[in-house]
Amino acid sequence: MQHELTTSALPFRVSVGEPDSLWTDASRTAQPTTLIITPVQLHQRNIETRLRQRAQPMSSLIPRRLRGVAEELLKETDEPAIAADRVDRLAYLPDVLVESQRPVYDRLAAVIGQPLSQHVETVERARGELELVTGFHPQRMEQVADAVRSDAQQVSEPATVDTLDLLAGVSQLHHDLTDYLTTDTTAEQTTLHLASETAVLTRAIRELTANPDIWAAAYPTIEQLVVAGASMLTAPLEDLLRVVATRTDTDVQLCLRTASGPAIADHLTQTTAVDAPGTQGVFSWR
User: Fold this and answer.
1) What is the pLDDT of residue 150?
2) Judging by DSSP bridges, how do beta strands 224-230 and 251-256 pair with one another?
3) How many other CB atoms are there within 10 angstroms of residue 29's CB atom?
4) Backbone phi, psi, residue 29, to 5°
5) Looking at per-residue confidence, does 104 or 266 come out higher?
6) C-beta neighbour count of 188 within 10 angstroms
């Protein structure tokens, strides 16, 4: 059963539990009216199985993963983009690290291991985790840095220094990897390759913020956006929900899982929207 949470400060609805509206609103329509975003393919299959068991039509629903939504939005711009996968990143990272003679990478190596090019899996894992938490948005990276500093008695404490060097190093690496991929694009290619799915999503958020008409172009009949089965909330997903809710006429609902939902909702009520959502930058502290 679904329980609505009191999050009146948010521009979208938040609930915990099964998305009841999917079972009641699913209908036979000529065009889909509800866009469903699921974290993993399993959630999508579970929804489809549930609807089949109830003998309900699914033509009013259109399922997508976040990556699919981002790519479809960017198709409506002059610069469509797709994401490099993990295998590609692991292949490209050594070249990026070797070619970029940056002091920040020496400090990153002191945290992760020497030589850095032989620890690319650890580097990639750190890059991915910080990307989900911050989206490499400058404002969020500063918030993380401030939290780290506030937990330390002195900024020179080794653990604090290591954390700040890690944030600075991986954000620079993400920037350099993005440059490497876009520079490598040939004249015949019309689709940009970006560093990750999150990088594609943040680019789509920037484009949507600047031009909300691309939402209607990509989803002309969609009246409702539902994120179903979410057990965590990444920074870019939060930004997407805020932008769709405030910049389009689409009703937005975030359906959280029972175990983690209340904590996520409480976190949301204590955060504010960042300026220039979808922006990615590099953190520097020394």
Assistant:
1) 86
2) parallel
3) 14
4) -135, 160
5) 104
6) 5
Task: Single out the residue of 79, 77, 76 nearest to residue 190, CA to CA.
Answer: 79
171 token code pair: 């954000």
Phi, psi for residue 91 in degrees, rounded to 5: -75, -35
SS3 state of residue 29: coil
**Taken in order 242, 244, 248, 251, is the CA torsion positive or negative?**
negative
How far apart CA 201 and CA 279 sit, in angstroms, is 11
Average pLDDT over residues 258-267: 86
Tokens 């490099």 belong to 84
Amino acid 154: pLDDT: 61
Closest CA to 274 of 216, 217, 206: 206
For residues 55 and 77, give the distance between their C-alpha atoms in angstroms, rounded to a whole number. Answer: 39
pLDDT of 268 higher than 80 = yes
Q: Are strands 81-83 and 61-64 parallel, antiparallel or unpaired?
A: unpaired
Residue 260 has what DSSP assignment?
A: T
Q: What is the pTM of this model?
A: 0.90
In angstroms, the CA 192 to CA 84 distance is 10
- Supply the DSSP symbol for 63: E
Residue 18 carries which side chain, given as an amino acid letter? E
What is the distance between the alpha carbons of residues 77 and 215, in angstroms, rounded to a whole number? 11
Contact between residue 80 and residue 190 where contact means Cβ atoms under 8 Å apart: yes
One-letter amino acid for residue 93 of the chain: L
Euclidean distance between CA atoms 239 and 132, whole angstroms: 12
